[in-house]
């Protein structure tokens, strides 16, 4: 059996928006990666540390698949999600959609994908599948991972069956765009204000601007948390800047989303938010560089400096989100 769907693979940065772009372009809806990320209210922040973690984790976006759910709700998309504990039924779900000419999104553990650059486990990875033959699956991943790639059906089955943090039960999904779907432009303000409100009023201190402030206090202690600073701090810096975030812990993507919005909406609040997120993006890249330098040198002063930058970033992002939250009450111009 050989099924290949004609799709367009673009050089994109983040896994979930990469997959969403493939599925939606096939349906005739072509949006930039920053627009997909922003309309899905994807920006967030979490500082996470617990007894079962070897080292603290900094995250810059909402949980896996929340972005997809947000986007589908916002744009009135027909989102069909399949989950099962049965590997056979899981394959049947995917094959049926592909054989019907529709690409499929998959959430899986990237550790098992043969083309993937990192062997670390990550159960929240998302790819678009556009074909298969007797031996291989044909996928679209981020530009960093090769764009249009292949992996064996055996490795794909292992990736989908993995269990652990952030994994799903063989999750697959398809998207359709109904004729009466609202225009993306009409949903910009609701998407921005929803993201801002969540960031400004997090339920716990590890999230949103409060989480950034907490990270600012704790990051200077990171050398005390590791026996291998070269490995652990270098990995933390890599996750901020390179690992599918689009740079600056997703702040580059959100900055570019706000820039697109500013071309469509005449708003001083929006321009303020964009200016401040441009500043925040630069700051997050500096933090990643300082953490990497601390890992290489063992110099705690680098982490003290990174903590000071984070203190300022907590203020910058809070002020940006306060400005953006006011979009909903602004008179049209």
TrEMBL record:
Residues 14-142 form the Butirosin biosynthesis protein H N-terminal domain. Residues 155-324 form the DUF4872 domain. This is DUF4872 domain-containing protein. It comes from Streptomyces hainanensis. The lineage of its organism: Bacteria, Bacillati, Actinomycetota, Actinomycetes, Kitasatosporales.
